[in-house]
Every structure is written in structure tokens, then in C-alpha cells.
Write a structure and sequence with these properties.
Length: 169
């Protein structure tokens, strides 16, 4: 089974076993729907948990698991990452990509000149996301993830073509 990381448990919340999760997913309501199974990676093992409750609070997901609704039972999972089975991933519309699909793509300009490798996707509140690219010279660049700059994404070939303007890199 292949797993995809959807968030990180940053802390507990209250005494009833809720976990405060920094989400890496755009589909939290779907991921943490009551009865769904998620996996917590602890000590190299993917431990399955069934979601009992979900709500959002101040930019975090608050989740509790079935039969784990006590702070003393869940404290051990702080700093652990949460995963889903790749099979449960929802298909996206054409031209939309999961963050995990974008990480590792080789970036080049429209002339085919290598720029670097996508190492992360950074969210901004209310604005566009940015691709963080580790450049060939060792530096980093932030590229707005908008059609004006992102000209082509090819997941199969693991490439992304970027329209470079003066001052972008």
C-alpha cells in the first residue's frame, strides 16, 4: 500500500482527545469525514485510525479518532504525520495537481534552460500559492503558481515549464 502525507499533528487540543493538525490537503472535510480511515506514522509504522470528529479552528484541523477521545491516549502522537492510502485520493480536474505530484519536478524556462527542482509548494493566506525551487546554482526562487508563469506541467516526464521575466529568479 502506498501512503500520501496529508498533515502533521502539531499538538493536542482540549482534554477530549482532539488533535491539532497542520494540513497539507485541500480536502480536509473529505479526508476527516466521520468513519474514514487515516494512518498515523509512528516509529516507522502506519497505524490506522477511524475518524470520530472533524472541525476547523484558526487555520488548523481538529480531529478526534474513534476510541481515542482522551488527551492521555493521543498525546503520544504529537509531531507525527498523518497519511491516507493513495487509493482513496480523489481525482482532480484536468490541469489540477496534488502537491506531492509537483514536488520533485524539474523546472526549465520556455527555451529549455534548466532552472532547478520544485522542492515545496507554499501557501499564502488569500493569495496564490508559490513553488519553491532549488535553483541549479544552489539558491532558491519563489515562483507564483499562476498561468502567467506556469506554462506547462508534465507529470509523466516530471517537468514544469516556467515563463521567466526579469527579476523573477
Amino acid at each position: 500500500m502506498e501512503y500520501i502525507c496529508i498533515g502533521k499533528i502539531v499538538n493536542t487540543f482540549g482534554i477530549k482527545g482532539e488533535l491539532k493538525i497542520k494540513s497539507y490537503s485541500d480536502f480536509d472535510e473529505l479526508r476527516y469525514k466521520k468513519g474514514n480511515t487515516v494512518y498515523v506514522l509512528k516509529d516507522g509504522k502506519y497505524l490506522p485510525f477511524i475518524t470520530a470528529s472533524f472541525r476547523s479552528h484558526k487555520g488548523f484541523s481538529l480531529v478526534s479518532f474513534k476510541d481515542m477521545q482522551d488527551i492521555n491516549l493521543v498525546e503520544q502522537y504529537k509531531e507525527c504525520e498523518i497519511y491516507i492510502d493513495q487509493e482513496s485520493r480523489k481525482p482532480l480536474k484536468e490541469g489540477e495537481y496534488y502537491r506531492s505530484e509537483l514536488r520533485g519536478l524539474k523546472a526549465a524556462d520556455e527555451n529549455g534552460t534548466a532552472i532547478g527542482t520544485v522542492i515545496d509548494i507554499e501557501e499564502t493566506l488569500g493569495a496564490n500559492n508559490y513553488l519553491r525551487i532549488e535553483k541549479e546554482d544552489g539558491g532558491e526562487a519563489l515562483i507564483p503558481y499562476v498561468p502567467a508563469f506556469i506554462k506547462e506541467v508534465n507529470i509523466d516526464e516530471k517537468t514544469i515549464v516556467i515563463h521567466v521575466v526579469e527579476g523573477l529568479l
